[in-house]
Amino acid sequence: GAGVSQSPSNKVTEKGKDVELRCDPISGHTALYWYRQSLGQGLEFLIYFQGNSAPDKSGLPSDRFSAERTGGSVSTLTIQRTQQEDSAVYLCASSPGGGSFSEQFFGPGTRLTVL
Amino acid sequence: AQSVAQPEDQVNVAEGNPLTVKCTYSVSGNPYLFWYVQYPNRGLQFLLKYITGDNLVKGSYGFEAEFNKSQTSFHLKKPSALVSDSALYFCAVRDFMFSGGYNKLIFGAGTRLAVHP
Questions:
Q1: How far apart are CA B21 and CA A87, in angstroms?
Q2: What confidence tens digit (pLDDT) does each residue in B36-70 have?
Q3: Chain A interface, mutation test: which of B88, B103, B112, most A Cβ atoms within 10 Å?
């Protein structure tokens, strides 16, 4: 079956512009995560969605970052007024549930470059 | 707070030799540990996990990991490396968010494995 997909695969933008990154989770997966992978660093948790519950936004680095998940499926991560330090690979993951034993399935990521 | 450390930025090994990629962890409570691999321009792929039970966990592509509670380690191993194993490897620990009742993964910085012919 289809895995997690993300679009675009690459995004180059100018400083100060807004960007939207899209994630299509695996069908039927109720949990969705966004992570950020900066060069030379590990993955940094950004936000978590579970079904129709309120998301956990505790990992968002600033109020320029926001995310939504429509209909419990597709998610969009929006970065407003992008800065050069926002340059990174943004990874989306989904899992059947948020429970202890659910492994997360990752998409290929969106590489964001802010000039 | 939960954390994992991968002390080696890069590991070099000759094809056919055994490989070890190191990971140590710091958790409160029982550790739930994971290994993921990232090939160039690809997302992370799950390799294996330790939840409970046998200390030696077997995973995908011939990889295994040994959980050592006394040393707080969860090293990834493979008896005979392949050139195709060259990739970026991440160790992760579950951070259970009790307020939300879900898992968040805390990742190490990653170790780049280079297998030479």
A1: 28
A2: 999 887 788 999 999 888 899 999 999 999 999 99
A3: B103
